C-alpha cells in the first residue's frame, strides 16, 4: 500500500487535468485540424480535404487582412498605453487621496469594467449617435454640424478606442491601486530617513516593487484589448470601409457571416501567436523574475 | 348470479376503458421549428400554439387561422405540438450554421432568401418537395424574382412566401415647401436635383437635421443599390458564353450606380450608420425623407391613430425607390421562406402544414398580417382575404406603391458564395462613397475579388 502513496496526488489531480486537457488542448488541436483543412459551412457535412498551409496563404493574400492588422495595431497600441497610463494615474491619485475619498471613488471607477459588452457598446452608440447622441447634442447646440462618429473611418476608430479605454481602464485602477497599497509604509519612512528624494523613491523603490503588477496588468489588458471584438462588432460591425475591422473580428465575421471556418481558424491561431509574441516581448522588456 | 354480475362488471370496465382510449387516440406530432422573433405575437407564433399552453396570455382570435389549427381541422386524427426555437435576427446566421454543423433535427427552419443557395449547398436541407413548390408557384403566379430566389441548381427549396418593399418615406409638407411634388422626386435624376433645396428647406424652415437619411452598413442595405444597377442594365453576376458566372457590375451601369449614391451624399443626403434609429428620426421629424421599407407602415399609422387614410397620405408620401429616366422600376426584394432539413423527423407533416397555409388564403393572409410582411404573388396581393384586411391599416396609395416595388423586385444571385460576393460589391460602394476612390477603380478591384471567389 505504501508504495502506491506516490500516485495519490496524481489521482487527485487527474480530474482537473482531464478537464483542462479537454477544454484547452483538445479545443486547440481541433482548431489546428480545421485550420489545415478546407472547412466551410458548405462542406461541413462532407469530407474536409487537407490543404496544409493554404488557409494561411489565403489569409495573407486577402486584401482586407492587412487592413485588419493595421487596425489591430492602432486599436491595441492606443488602447493598452492609454489604459496603463490613465489607470495608473488614477490609481495613484486614489492612493494619495484620503481614505474616505478613495472608498467613495473606487467602486464608482469599477462600474465600466462590470458593464457587459453589449450594454457598453449600446451605451456608446447612444452617446456618440449622430442624431440621438449626447455629444452631438452639445455640438449642435454650439452651432456646429453634428458629426457621424461611427460613420467616418477615423472617428469610428477613435470611438471604439475610447469605448475600449473606458471599459478596460478600471481594471488597471483596481490592480495598481492594490499594488500601491501593498508597499510597506516602513519602506517609505526608511527612504525618507535615508534622505532619498521623491524621484529616487519612485524609481528605485516603488517601481521595482510594482513591476510584477505592471507586467501582469500589461499582459492581461493586452489579451483583452486584442480580443475585444465584441465591443467593436456591436458598435461599428467593423466598418465603415473596414476601418474598425480588427484581426479577431475578421475571423469572427469570416466564420459566422460567411461560413469560412478554416479561414477563421487560421486567424484565431495567428491572433494567439501575435499575443504570445507580445507577452514574450513584455517579459524581456520588463525583465521581471515571475518565479523566484 | 355472482359470477354473472362480476363478468358484466369486468366487460363494461374493459369496454369503457377501450372507448375512452379510442376517443382520445390522436396522433401527436411535435414539429421542431427554428425561426426569428415574431413581433405580432411573442408567445404564439403565427404557425400555431407554442409551448405547453400554460402561458397566462390570452390566445388571440386570429389564432383560428393559423396553419397548424387549420391543418388539425383538416386532419382530425392529428394533433400538432410546436416546439419553437426563437433566435434573434442578429444571431440567426450563427445559430443556423450551428444547426447545420450539428445536423439538428428541426422540421422547419425559417430562411432568408440571401442564404438559400449557401444552405442548400450544405446538404442539410432537402429539395424533396421541389416539384410541389414549382407547381404551386406556377399555379399562383409567384413573381419570377421569388421563384429564382428560392431555387438552387434547379431545385426549389421552399416558397418565398413573404417579402418587404424598400421605400422612401417623405414628409410632404417639407417637400411642398421646397417647391417639389412626389412625382418630381420619383426619378433618380429628379431626387438628385431636388435634394439640395429639400435639405435647405428642412434645415432652415423646419429645424430638421437634414433632407434625406440614407442607411449605410445595415445588413439589409448592403445590397440596396442593386435596384439601380439592374435598372441601368447591370447585374451582380451574369453568365458568360461558356455558361460561367462572371461579375456583371464592372461596367457603365455599375459606375453610374455607385456615383449616384455618392452624388446623393454630395447633394445633402446624410449617411446614416445609426440605421436602427432611422425610422425614429423620421417620425421625430429630424429628416424630410428616409430610406426605409414597407415595414415602417405601422410606425407611421400608430403615431397618428386619429388620422384617416386620406389625411395620412396627404401628410406622408411613399415611393419604392427612385427610377432612372426611361428605365423600368427595379428594386431589391428578398424574402423569407420555410425550408425543411433532411434530418427532419416529420418532413411530410411539416410540408403539409406550410402548404396548408399557402393554399388557404385566410391562413396565408393571417401570417402576412401578423408578420407585417407583403405577399410575393399577385394572387395574394389581390386576394380579398388579405387586401380588404391589410388596407384597413395601410392606406391604399401606399399599398399600391409597395406592390409596384415587389413586382419590380430583383433577387440576389443564387450562389453559395453570395455573402462574399456581396461584401466585395459593398466594399466598392463604401470606397466610392466615403473613401474618395473612383467608381471605376473600386469596381475593378471588386470584380477581381469576385472572380477569385468564383474560381473558388
Distance between the termini of chain B: 89 Å
Number of helices of chain B: 20
Radius of gyration of chain A: 24 Å
- Tell me the CATH architecture of chain A: Orthogonal Bundle
Count the domains of chain B. 2
The CATH class name of the largest domain in chain B reads Alpha Beta
Overall 3D geometry of chain A? flat
Biggest interface, chains and residue tallies: A-B, 31 and 35 residues
Q: CATH homologous superfamily of chain A?
A: MetI-like
What report would you give on this structure?
The complex is a heterodimer of chains A (292) and B (456). Chain A is mostly helical and 292 residues long. Chain A has one domain (67-286): MetI-like (MetI-like fold). Helix content of chain A is 74%, strand content 0%. The two termini of chain A are 36 Å apart. In chain A, 33% of the residues are buried. With 456 residues, chain B is an alpha/beta fold. Chain B folds into 2 domains: 27-163 and 334-410, Periplasmic binding protein-like II (D-Maltodextrin-Binding Protein, domain 2, 3-Layer(aba) Sandwich); 166-332 and 417-455, Periplasmic binding protein-like II (D-Maltodextrin-Binding Protein, domain 2). Helix content of chain B is 47%, strand content 15%. Chain B contains 20 helices and 15 strands. In chain B, the strands form 5 sheets. A 5-stranded mixed sheet of chain B has the order 10-7-11-6-12. In chain B, helix 10 (252-266) packs across helix 19 (418-433) and helix 19 (418-433) packs antiparallel against helix 20 (439-455). The longest helix of chain B has 23 residues, at 2-24. Chain B starts with a helix and ends with a helix. The interface between A and B is medium-sized, with 31 and 35 residues.
Q: How would you summarize this macromolecular structure in one to three sentences?
A:
The complex is a heterodimer of chains A (292) and B (456). Chain A is mostly helical.
Fold topology:
The complex is a heterodimer of chains A (about 290) and B (about 450).
Chain A: H1 8-35, H2 54-61, H3 63-96, H4 99-114, H5 117-128, H6 134-141, H7 153-181, H8 185-193, H9 198-226, H10 229-235, H11 247-256, H12 261-286
Chain B: H1 2-24, E1 27-35, H2 67-74, E2 78-86, H3 92-101, E3 108-112, H4 116-122, H5 130-140, H6 144-149, E4 151-152, E5 155-156, E6 166-171, H7 172-177, H8 188-206, E7 210-215, H9 226-231, E8 237-239, E9 245-247, H10 252-266, E10 270-272, H11 278-283, E11 287-293, H12 297-303, H13 309-315, E12 316-319, E13 331-332, E14 336-339, H14 347-359, H15 361-371, H16 378-381, H17 384-393, H18 396-407, E15 409-410, H19 418-433, H20 439-455
Parallel strand pairs in B: 1-2, 1-3, 7-10, 7-11, 13-15
Antiparallel strand pairs in B: 3-14, 4-5, 6-11, 6-12, 8-9
